[in-house]
Structures are given as structure tokens and as C-alpha cells.
Amino acid sequence: MRIGLLGAGRIGTFHATALAHTDGVDGLVIADADPARAAALAERLGAEAAVPATSVMSAAEAFAQVEAVVITAATAAHADLITEAARNRLPTFCEKPVALDLGRTVRALREVESAGTLLQMGFQRRFDAGFRAAREALRAGRLGRVHTIRAVTSDAAPPPAEFLPLSGGLIRDCLVHDFDAVRWLTGREVAEVYARGTDGGAACFREAGDVDTAAVLLTLDDDTLVTATATRYNGAGYDVRTELSGERDQWVVGLDDRTPMTSAEPGGPGAPVRPWSGFLERFDGAYRAELAAFVRAARGEVPNPCSGWEGLRALVVAEACELSRREGRPVRPAEVAERAGVPAL
């Protein structure tokens, strides 16, 4: 299968490298808004650059040459590229989100639905070995009734200041992964959220209307309580953990010899020698498994493992959290969906 990769930045370079070594991929065509960047990456991987590689937004050249599409372009381009791929009847993988607003997300998903094509969203935690093992244990009843979930997502250092206004904010950019993971792990929906955020770090967060640290309390539809925290300042290293506490047992995802933590107990473990540096390193295997699953789904060998509607559900929760943070009150995701005219999910 010939795959078109649209966007040759950091995540695009990672995905292109993975796709070049994925079973079932016998050709890779790379397009980018910067033709030189696409050409350089293609040359390094022995792939092809879309000719002419004029821009990501006018990627018709790449569409005409491939059988499926992987979108790793800037977030602002996602919805248009998804729409064009659907109109070209191409199975598509897209890094989250479809768009940063609910209305545009729904319109793009309707295009996919109308075309009858596949759209797989990039929520890589669903393919991480630890998350998958925890889900199996929970679903098998090994934890008993799960009453509390604690999720942590912490960046080792803030992203570039110019990224912040384009990111959608800490909650939409980072915590949305936790929202999707919680839904996927438990099979439950979020009934209510309460969110707070602080911006005591660099001025660029305040200038972008963002926060550098956030904490959210989620109540699931079976009354399970979930806390989810995120920060851009975790100098010890990159940290993603999810604890599942049940009446019979307690499991944690992301606790290993590279977890950036130091025990305060006498004789407890010290700081890891080589803590996780970032999301690409921490989820290397998950990203590769995710793309392999997309290739199989695009070939019709397996069902879509994470549809665009799953991405919309996680975004609705994120939007509810943003509203809660701004207004200082509990918010039901159903309220946000109804306001935005989002169809019943």
C-alpha cells in the first residue's frame, strides 16, 4: 500500500520513519508546506516527495499518488485535509484533534461519514502495552469495582512560546489524551467535570490565554471519580501515569525504572538514571503499533480501532473542562454538546 504523509515536522518525521518500516507499506509519498523539508525527509528515508509539493493545504498531488493518507500537519490544517481525503475516498489517519472547535470537527466527520471512508484518530495510549494490560485487567474484573482513577500527564519542559496559541491550550492539547484513555479503559462516559488551572510560569502562557498547570475532577456515569492533572513544568522528566484503584486490587500504568520520581522513604528508589525525555520516546512502541493497526484497517483486515467520533467525544470533555475553568463551576459535557449542536454520541 502506498501511503501519503502530509506534514514533515517533528511528529511527521517520526511517523514517516515508522511507516517506512511497517509491514504492508510498499511506498511512501511525503508532502509538506515547505517542499524542501518534504524532499529532505523523503531522501533520508528512500521515499518520494509529492511533486510538486506546493503546500499541505493543496495536497492534491499527494492524494493522486497514494492509497491512504497519514495527516501530521499543523492542527489548523487537519479538518480541511480530512475533508479532501474523504472526497478522494482515501482511508485516513490523523493526529488529534480533527479541529479545535466542535462545529468544524462535526462537519469534517460528516464528510467522512458521507464518503463512507475510514478515519482513525491518533490516540496512541490505546496501543501502549501498559494501558492495554490495565484495560484487560479492569474488564476481566480483577480489580473489582473501580472507585477511583488518578491520571497524570507532565511535560519535562514547556513547548516553544509560538506553539501555545496554536495548541488549543493545555487541556485540549494534553489532558484530552487522559480523557480518551479513561473512556477507553473503563467503557464509561464522563457525566460531569470541574476544572482549575494556574499560570504561574512564563508570561507566554498568560499572553496565549492558557495555563501551565491544570487539575480536573471527572465524575463518570457510574459515579467513579477521576482526577486528571497536567503541567508543562516537570523538571524531573516526562511523566504519564494512570492509577486504577478498585475494591480488589490497584494497578498503575507508567510506573517503571524510567518514571521520573524519587521516593522520600528511607531505602526507597531514587531518581531514575535515564528518565523519559518526552512523548515520542515514552510512546515509541505505541505509535508504531498504532500506525501498523491503521495500515491493516485501511486494507480492510481489521475494524477501525479509534474513529473520528471517539476523538469528538474526548474533545467534548475537554471543552467542558475549559468552560468549567473559565466559569468556576461544574459542567456536564452534555451541556457543551447541546450548546454546540453536536449530535447525540
UniProtKB/TrEMBL annotation:
GO terms, molecular function: inositol 2-dehydrogenase (NAD+) activity; nucleotide binding
Domain annotation GFO/IDH/MocA-like oxidoreductase: ranges: 131-248
Record carries keyword Zinc: no
Gene3D superfamilies (alphabetical): Dihydrodipicolinate Reductase, domain 2, NAD(P)-binding Rossmann-like Domain
InterPro entries the record matches: Gfo/Idh/MocA-like_OxRdtase_N, GFO_IDH_MocA-like_dom, NAD(P)-bd_dom_sf
Domain annotation Gfo/Idh/MocA-like oxidoreductase N-terminal: ranges: 1-123
Domain of life: Bacteria
EC number(s) from the headed UniProt entry: 1.1.1.18, 1.1.1.369
Entry keyword annotation includes Oxidoreductase: yes
Pfam families: GFO_IDH_MocA, GFO_IDH_MocA_C3
Enzyme class: oxidoreductase
Sorted UniProt keywords: Oxidoreductase
Family named by the database record: Belongs to the Gfo/Idh/MocA family.
Protein name: Myo-inositol 2-dehydrogenase/D-chiro-inositol 1-dehydrogenase
Organism listed in the record: Streptomyces netropsis (Streptoverticillium netropsis)
